[in-house]
Design the sequence.
């Protein structure tokens, strides 16, 4: 399994978790971003994701490397989905493991926070009566 | 110098397409490309931010462009 | 599936994750405590867990309720394994979900920190040449 | 009053069994049970902590015991 991965297929959080498991692990932390059915009270039909893929993979790998070094992780896996993602399905999975749990929690939260700031992936919310590129406008 | 720029997300909607070609006549920088783009497509000024990537790296406005560069518009990202 | 659960069987992190998924979720955070092969440089064969079960379930439910209220979670699930647990297998799974990810991270970390302080479960590390009740002595 | 106390974890090793019976003659509190237990089994003083639970709730030393209570010794927990 690839550690850094972008796909139009459903994500597999279980495989991501297994990929970071190792005999020396004291804690695994997994973040799963799922598609929410409401945004500002408005009902969302589904999301559509697109990416500038080579750069997105590069920025995702940068996050995983930085987090692994900074928190002394065993490993971090980041998988992101593209295309149409229905409500409740996973848009992103970040899994990491380390000897101690505090580091794994901090690293996982850092990774999703940073992904949302730096990785060139864009999400369009599709409503019954229109669509909006998320965060595009102030 | 002619520069082709690739758009993603809302930037595609603003230029009404996947790519746009700009003529750079002054210092051939990202800053010049940004100014030309904003004057041709005023809607870019409404975005929360607009970054440029060259060959899959974020660059600043003083970055010099060459004709072979892959130049990509990065409107506010919203992954995750 | 029970939200608060103690079992001698293998834990199912995937089922725990699915149990907290809901259409309004913006983030799911899952903590998995696995059995580490080393403690203070000494090689561990496996762990053995025992619990004062009625009270352990009550204290686990208390943690889940407190976390759910304090961080406005949708739901928290806590499953703990008892008996012999081999290296790399899950001893505990805590999964939670909320509309926003920051709350889910904080709540999940609070839950495992508190579980380790208040829930009457005891872990014995079994070595080739002896065994030790973890944390018993200062 | 006779009180039966249930042990878990290292407390089982210290009393060399699952249960121990104590005779409370003074104030019938958890504190009295703790003192009797420590004098009978000095190894309890080596533990990082020793709590008591009565009917599945943590209690303090001033808690009054009755003959029907389920009294459980809680040495330092180590779940997770």
Sequence:
């Amino acid at each position: 399994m690839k550690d850094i991965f972008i796909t139009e297929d459903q994500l597999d959080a279980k495989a991501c978790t297994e990929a970071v498991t190792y005999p020396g692990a004291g804690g695994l932390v997994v973040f799963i971003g799922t598609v929410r059915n409401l945004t500002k009270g408005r009902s969302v039909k589904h999301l559509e994701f697109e990416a500038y893929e080579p750069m997105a993979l590069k920025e995702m790998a940068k996050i995983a490397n930085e987090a692994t070094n900074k928190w002394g992780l065993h490993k971090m896996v980041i998988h992101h989905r593209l295309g149409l993602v229905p409500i409740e399905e996973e848009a992103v999975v970040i899994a990491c493991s380390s000897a101690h749990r505090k580091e794994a929690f901090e690293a996982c939260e850092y990774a999703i926070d940073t992904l949302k700031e730096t990785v060139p992936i864009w999400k369009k919310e599709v409503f019954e009566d229109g669509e909006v590129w998320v965060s595009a406008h102030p | 110098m002619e520069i082709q720029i690739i758009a993603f997300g809302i930037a595609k909607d603003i230029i009404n397409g996947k790519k746009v070609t700009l003529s750079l006549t002054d210092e051939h920088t990202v800053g010049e490309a940004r100014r030309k783009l904003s004057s041709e497509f005023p809607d870019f000024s409404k975005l929360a931010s607009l970054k440029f990537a060259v060959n899959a790296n974020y660059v600043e406005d003083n970055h010099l462009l060459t004709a072979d560069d892959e130049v990509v518009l990065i409107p506010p990202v919203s992954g995750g």
The radius of gyration of chain C is 15 Å. Residues 53-70 of chain C form the longest helix (18 residues).
